[in-house]
Structures are given as C-alpha cells and as structure tokens.
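User: Round two. Same drill as before: sequence, then structure, for each protein.

Assistant: Same drill it is. First protein:
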Amino acid sequence: SPASKMGRDGFIKPAYEDVFTAQTTFTSLLFASNPMVQFASADSGALVTEVGMVLVPGISTSSGIAGGNTKGLANSLAAQTAALNPDLELASGYATKFSWGAQGLMSLTYNRAFGSPINLTPSIAWKWDLGGNTPLPFGNYQAERKAITLGVTGTYLASWAGSINWTSNFGPDAPLDDRDFASVTISYAF
C-alpha cells in the first residue's frame, strides 16, 4: 500500500528499480512519384513513426510509486478524502510495470510555392501514450495522454527559415490539457 512506502518522517522512501526501455522508428521519404505526394500536388514529403516502451518489472500499481499524473496524496490517512475532493482519486496515476506510446510526423514540401523563392512545408505531428504510466522522475508515458501539433515552415533561398506551430494537449486526466501553445521561430543559416 502507499502508506507502507512511507518512512517514519512521513516522506516516501526512495525506490530503486531496474528499467528496460525500447523504441523503434520508421522513416519514409516520399518523392514526387508517390501517389500521396501527387494527390497533394507537393514536390516531396516525409512520414516518421516511432513506438516506444518502458518496462519496470519490479513494481506493481499497488506499490504506490508515483507515475507522471499521480493524483492525491501518498498518505491515505490525509485529512482530505475523495468524497470531499473529487480530484483526489488515490488509485489513479500510479506507475505501472509496462507503459508505451507512439508518435509520428507527416510533412509535405512545396518548392517555390506560389511561384516565389520560398519553399513551404506544412506538417502535422501527433503523440499518443497508449497505455500504462511510467514511474517518476521519467514520466515518458501517461495513459491516454495525447497531443497534436499543426505547423508550417517556410524557407527562403535555403538560408532564412521561419515556422509557425500550434500544439494541443488532450486526453482524459491529461495534466497538460490546459497548456496548448503556439510557437514562432525564425532562423538564418550561414
């Protein structure tokens, strides 16, 4: 139980566990002859997909080790209860033995867009933590956490580049769901 992981001083005892991680990435460059590129009237494209996992064989959900979105308090005798505060779901968010997720990126490049010296590359990126909660401090995966990013990058004469992106975080109990953001970058290569 979570209380058994606490020392006499009320703090959670540190845990040391073996951690096994793995990931694989698939990359596909799409050339002008690709039907998808032709359909979008683009000059080229790219698809990148990555699947990863974390295995911590020495723990279980009942061990009380915090996951990335642990709710509530480690001390189940705390003054607040789930009945008084619905945000204290003491059984959710704890680390699991196995956690995994996937992410990907798709982009298309339009050379000399609209007859200008600018190459435009619209893109969409996604992230989905498919299951399990990675123990803290890592927090790689948090069950059902999702994000999507839409963006466009413009390159002028292969030296100046600028991009505009917007990211939305969502999913049940996603701790970042209120942190959607936009980003703007400008760079010069010399």
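Second protein:
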Amino acid sequence: MSPASPAHGALTHGSLESLGSLTHESLEHELRDILGLHGLINWHRITQIWFAHAWGHWQLGVRGCCATCNMLLSFQLCTYGIDVEHRLWLAICQGLAAVSLFMQWWLASPYMFLIRASACVAKSLILLHLTICGRNSMFNPVDCDMVKWDDPRVPFRIMHGIMVVYWMATASSLTMQFLQPLRGVSSTTGNIQLWIRARIRATGVPVQLARGILKPILLTGTEYERAPIEAVINITRAGLICIVVWSLDNQWRTSGVVHAYSPDATPHDEDQDLSTCTSDESIKSVLDEIPELLQ
C-alpha cells in the first residue's frame, strides 16, 4: 500500500470530511474496485476517493536510484577491465532491477516484484560461479579456478557464497510479497516482507565493508593484488546498502491503511493485522477507520 505524500495531494482533515458525504455503500463499492483481483491495488482508480496518489510509494524511486548507482559502479569496474566476465552481467541485472523499481514507482505494477526477483536469482547464479570458479568465463566449464584453503582468496570466496544466499533470500521475499500483498498489513504498517527484506539487505553492509578493508590487507604484494578502485567501490556499495535498508524500513512504517488516508496519522493502540483477512474483511477494516479519522 502506498501512502499519500504532501507533494501528491495528500489528504487533509478537510478532504477527509468530504468522505463523510459519501454513503457507506458507495465507499464500499469504490474500495472493492480499488482492491481489485487478489487484493492487488488498481492505482489508476485509487484517486477517485482520494485514497492515495496515483503512483507507487516514493521510496521505490529512492531504491531505483540506488540500483542505478550500483549498475554504474559495476560498469566502472568493467571500464578498468576488472572481472568483466561477471561484472558486466551483474550490471545488466542491476539495471533491470533499477528499471523495475522506477516502473513500480510510476505505475505501481505488482509484476515488477517478479522482475526484481528474477534479477536476484540471476545475480545469485553469477555469484555462485564466482564463488566456485573465481574470475573466469562463465561459459567455459573447463576454465574454473578452485582455490585451496591456504589461498589468500578464500575469505573473498566465502563472502561471495554469503551473497549467493543473500540474493536468493531477497528473491524469495520479493516473490512472497507478490503472492501475499496484504501479508502483515495493518492500520499503520505495510507488507511484512518490507521489514524482512530490510533485515536481509542489512547483512550486505558488513560483507561489503569486509571486502573493502581486507583486499588491501590480504592481497597487496601477492599475485592477486587488487586495484584500489575495487576497495573504494566496495565501501561505496556499503553506503548504498544502508540507504536501501533505511528505504525499505521507512516504506514498511509508512504504508499502512492509516497512512494512505493521512501521512500525519499516528499509530493506534489496537494495530489490526490484515494479513489473514479476506477481501471483505479488509474492506470492512478500511471502512471502520473512516469515522475515527473524521473525529
């Protein structure tokens, strides 16, 4: 669910009072149209009762910018000739994720969850090859550099393995949010998968920091010495992940039913969970909020 922002015609107390002129039946009819098939929101009809603005949550745009920055960083590595075999494909996946985030921000299409989930699975497979075979061609099975435990690159291979799980967990969360759009949604908070995904993504911060710090410490003076730009990009990615974590957590905290009516709404003592509601119960819970907001 997407909250209204002041820049996009958020509800004021006066506009809330105008809802009182509508009958309970007409409101219910409008809400049924809005919730649509399987509880997915028809955002192009949502403005008819000022439920929210026509587009998706603005935090989708924030994460779209972060994904774009990650794509540019990957292309930057390619321009230096660093691990082009993997970084080029990772950049394509990051670009696809960025496009899907911007599209979901503009059009609020739930199918963008599946596009991002597919990109995450692709990144997991790319990193799995990087974990096992190192910086070699993904399309030549003979060209695989498996390391021994005394190799200085082992810590980095382990971190790549962690990121394989990281992206698969992210893909699973995105898929679950598509399949269960009302899971965990309450009067004040959004889909529970936003909260889960924020915690998943947070694990990427120490991994990126460890890469940036350990590359000059462990690999300098060896045949595997890395260019300084790699460490800088790893540290930069850690900062971008922090923004993504904040964005996901903020969207979870500001995409409940109450926030859809008013961005200034405060949490209720009784925070009703809509995750197990039927469509009729979800509509009723929304209608029940209106008298309280009009007081």
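Residues 1-22, 34-54, 262-284, 289-295 have pLDDT under 50 and may be disordered.

User: Perfect.
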